[in-house]
Design goal:
This protein has about 425 residues and is an alpha/beta fold. About 40% of the residues lie in helices and about 15% in strands. The N terminus is likely disordered.
Length: about 425
């Protein structure tokens, strides 16, 4: 049974007293959509008084994200101008960072930010990449997260037939559980090399191969794994150990000729910065729907470019993420390639968005439609397994509530009053 919850009661946040210009577009409601068939994904739709709707998405712990959107961040946007994206991002981030940012709160901000950019593109009548400085390319090479332990050579041949020349897998991930990543025997390491060895024997160097270890190993084991794979000319080594110590990762990078890739586990430019600056990150892989949306991922790409480091956005999630990532890939000179899961793209994505991604001949091709370039299919929110939550009460940030303060001079208070009218919650 579809569960639709409309929040009509007073928001838990303080209520603003904001006068807005009648001609300014306003956000009227925020809607989240989840479906039982895909329990980790949550879509966000932001509606305006003009009838335009912006679409966003995130992945993982969706019920917690849903609460963050409706109880904390959504009220900061209701009745506001959706075009003030940077202002909204800062207001949401400051509220989150008051108690230490991360996790579900950053995923909520990410989904909202995507939807706001979608609206801005629709209003302008342009794809988002045109609003980020314009396209430096109109297609970006994709790689496939699809390297099974058995039959890897056949998968590689099939991908090459489609024009896809890079693939990723994690043959060491399952081996870490027995020792909590503390020990790996020579025989186990040799077993982990099996799919990589078979690909090289079958197609030679025609296929690039990346290894993802999900942050399972200690530094000594990580070095052994990387060095054992060096002879196979790996495209990169990703998350061989937890991304907690930039200096430890630098020691790993010094021990292998493969580029070390930092991944979706790091959120925002502030967490990625040290790894980029100390040289331990040769490739940057932010997850747009975790790290702060289009706004923050665009900044991360620029930060990486200042250090001559390429970025390759992460995906093993939903279709909206790849659409959003693609706009940064098209507008950023240092974009390397875009991840995708072929089974997702060819399978369930078709049931939820229209149009689907335009992947052909090994490339993701740029959408020409305004905004993101896709919409949530009309029937999704009406599915029997859908859970839809709608909220429309405005509110203000608990950490920056407006109002007189005795330590303010009359001049300062007048400026605060002006800002309340101009900007709303900050």
């Amino acid at each position: 049974m579809r569960d639709v919850l409309s929040i009509q009661h007073r928001s838990i946040l303080p209520q603003p007293n904001v006068s807005r210009r009648d001609t300014e577009m306003k956000i009227t409601k925020i809607e989240t959509v989840r479906v039982a068939e895909r329990p980790q994904v949550i879509w966000v739709q932001i509606s305006t008084d003009t009838g335009l709707v912006g679409l966003g998405e995130t992945w993982y712990a969706p019920t917690v994200v849903e609460a963050a959107i409706h109880d904390w961040f959504g009220p900061l946007l209701i009745g506001r101008d959706p075009g003030a994206i940077e202002r909204h991002w800062e207001a949401m981030f400051r509220l989150s960072d008051h108690a230490g940012y991360g996790g579900a709160e950053m995923r909520a901000i990410s989904a909202i930010d995507i939807a706001l950019w979608d609206l801005k593109g629709q209003v302008a009548g342009l794809p988002i990449y045109e609003l980020l400085g314009g396209a430096v390319r109109k297609k970006i090479r994709v790689y496939a997260t699809s390297m099974p332990y058995e039959g890897a050579a056949d998968v590689a041949r099939g991908l090459l037939d489609e024009g896809i020349m890079a693939m990723k897998g994690g043959p060491t991930i399952a081996l870490a559980t027995a020792s909590d990543g503390q020990f790996l025997s020579p025989n186990e390491l040799d077993m982990a090399l099996k799919p990589i060895r078979e690909i090289r024997e079958a197609v030679g160097m025609d296929m690039q191969i990346a290894n993802d270890a999900h942050g399972k190993w200690t530094l000594p084991v990580a070095i052994r794994i990387a060095q054992a794979m060096d002879e196979y000319e790996m495209m990169w080594q990703e998350d061989l150990m937890p991304l907690l110590n930039p200096e430890a990762l630098a020691r790993l990078q010094a021990a292998t000729k493969a580029p070390v890739c930092i991944s979706e586990r790091l959120l925002t430019r502030w967490q990625l910065r040290q790894f980029i600056e100390n040289g331990s990150a040769r490739i940057v892989m932010p997850d747009l729907i975790w790290t702060g949306g289009i706004s923050e991922t665009h900044k991360i790409a620029i930060l990486a470019s200042a250090h001559q480091v390429p970025f390759a956005p992460h995906d093993a999630t939903g279709p909206v993420n790849i659409f959003a990532c693609s706009h940064i890939c098209y507008s950023s000179p240092n974009a390397m390639m875009q991840e995708h899961v072929p089974d997702y793209f060819k399978g369930w994505y078709n049931d939820f968005v229209d149009p689907n991604l335009d992947i052909r001949d090994g490339y993701l091709h740029a959408p020409q439609e305004p905004g993101l370039g896709t919409r949530l299919k009309a029937g999704v929110r009406d599915r029997s397994d859908a859970s839809v939550r709608v909220s429309d009460p405005p509110g203000m940030s608990l950490i920056d509530a407006w109002g007189p303060a005795p330590q303010r001079t009359a001049e300062t208070q007048a400026r605060v009053d002006e800002m309340e009218i101009e900007r709303g919650p900050q």
